[in-house]
Amino acid sequence: MNKRMTKDFGGNQILHKASYNPKDCQVGVIHIGLGNFHRAHQAVYFHNLLSKMMVTNWGIAGVNLRPEQSNIMKAFKRCKNKYILKTVSPDGDIRFEEIKSILAMYEWAEQLDEVLCLFSSNEVHLITVTVTESGYYLDKDNQLNINAQDIQDDLSGETSKTIFGSLSQGLRYRMENGGSPITVACCDNLPHNGVLLKRCFKQYLLKKNDVELLNWVSENVSFPSSMVDRITLKIETNVSQEIREKFNQKDDCSVISESFIQWVIEDDFAGIRPPLEDVGVEIVDDVFSYENTKIRILNGGHIALTYLGILRGHKTYDAALKDPVLSVFFDAIQTQEILPALPLSSLIDYEQYLKTTKQRFKNQHLPDSLERIGMDGASKFPFFLLPTIEWHLSKGSVPIYSIKSIASWYVFLCKVDTNNIGFNYVEPKWNMLTPFLNGGGEKDFASSSNLWGDVPEQHPDFVNTLVEEIQIMKETFDINFLDISSSLNKENDFGRN
């Protein structure tokens, strides 16, 4: 069995290492998407698997689809396929660990032959995916948006820009070479993410008219749903500098995250399953209770407060949560709107989950930027907050705090559009949003089926209340940009359920 090693650099700074040699390990997992979260989450579980258990066949090969992330590839090679993860607990306890489970990384376009060989290998049993919510090209009904330009480009056969184009090309190669059954695990924050990925991928294959592959996938590929959780920050240059100073080691791939980590996977594997339960992964029959709780309470809580925090001048989520007005708002939206809308569950104590989540959010030792949390709002609100809104409207009540959150996003978007806020907002659906931001676009925004599905049509109160809240916030911000307390503390608003 491999043993853990530590190296003491003095000053109570220890770099935790593992004794396994990556050269003795084989690739058993392909991961698509090279963001920080994968390196702080799935890669850590497989690192622990290689470190703690007598296995060598569950190393990871990373595959990059996005040209803008090529710099990570180059940095990773400079670091000889290893990096340091810094974790910080709410109490300020810090741990540095060298992660070596990613054995290799490949650029899809430039190293296609090598990537396809991996896809066809019978030693590879699992494909994991983290491409963010917008990377699934969903329409308002959560079906594949066939008309999206990237999807059209992939269907033409000229590129593999999307997860669907890459899976199609890779799995076809596996099929043609007699490959064994394989599992594709979605690790993004989407409800029923495995079901969604499977449905959209099959829609893609139907549009591509690849019936042969569609039939093979139906018989040989599973798409388990999963819930993943670990707050992970954007890469900061000061982390690499800190590592260089503490450990005399250059690392441009370092990652920083909280100490908390959780992974729950549906027990639906087409082939050989990695023994992840031995390193803390929960393998369950039904993931829904876990993913629904996390998406509503944690992700919903994140997005609900983010734009209010930005408009009040805060830079990080922990600072926003310390704001007395926003702290009251957070507690109100959680206890009066989000928790009541969750289904009864014997598996999860919602109040305890909320308590733990708030403690994690308040971690001042891990300042999570509102810029990171706030990106891609058009894909997050429909999944993270809209189900709560729908539940309350169906019961005849207006979820005023949730609607205020959407109103704050709209006001924020207006300020981004007019360059009236110093903020780097990343929004893949910006072109869809800009027509709403002109004068008088509030009602069109509130009525948009692309954003809110059939809620505006089914519940006129949603549209009317959202337009009213947008007007209140716009007027308040125009008078005093950094003070929305009068808008949030109106007695008649706080009294509405």
Write a brief structural summary.
With 497 residues, this protein is α/β, with parallel strands linked by helices. The protein has 24 helices and 14 strands.
Structure description:
The structure is a single chain. Residues 479-497 have low confidence and may be disordered. The protein starts with a strand and ends with a helix. It is built from 24 helices and 14 strands. The chain is of the alpha/beta class and 497 residues long. Strands 7-4-3-8-9-10 form a six-stranded parallel sheet, sandwiched between helices. Strands 1-2-6-5-12 form a five-stranded mixed sheet, sandwiched between helices. Strands 11-13-14 form a three-stranded mixed sheet, with helices on one face. The protein is globular, with a radius of gyration of 23 Å. α4 (112-120) packs across α6 (163-176) and α6 (163-176) packs across α7. Helix content is 47%, strand content 13%. The protein folds into two domains: 4-286, NAD(P)-binding Rossmann-like Domain (Rossmann fold, 3-Layer(aba) Sandwich); 289-494, N-(1-d-carboxylethyl)-l-norvaline Dehydrogenase, domain 2 (Orthogonal Bundle). It has helices at 36-40, 42-52, 70-78, 112-120, 149-155, 163-176, 193-208, 211-220, 237-247, 288-311, 317-322, 324-338, 350-361, 370-374, 377-384, 386-394, 400-417, 430-433, 442-447, 449-452, 455-458, 460-479, 485-488, 491-494, and strands at residues 4-8, 14-18, 27-32, 59-64, 83-88, 94-99, 102-107, 126-129, 182-186, 221-222, 226-229, 255-258, 262-266, 282-284.
